[in-house]
Write a structure and sequence with these properties.
The chain has 51 residues and is an alpha+beta fold. The chain has one helix at residues 18-25; strands at residues 29-31, 37-39, 42-44.
Length: 51
């Protein structure tokens, strides 16, 4: 395969104490105008379709 190069991907995982994670991501729970669920700094999209 000419012109194709492989890149080495380095993934780094860090485990944090649960209290630190909860303090960082916590917040109000509400729905966006388009129906997504907002939990602090996390946004969960609603399922599309007719279901």
């Amino acid at each position: 395969m000419s012109g194709f190069s492989y890149f080495k991907i380095i993934l780094k995982w860090i485990l944090k104490p649960i209290n630190e994670v909860i303090n960082f991501y916590s917040g109000n729970v509400m729905f966006s105008p388009r129906g997504s669920l907002l939990i602090g700094k996390i946004t969960m999209q609603r399922k599309g379709g007719d279901g």
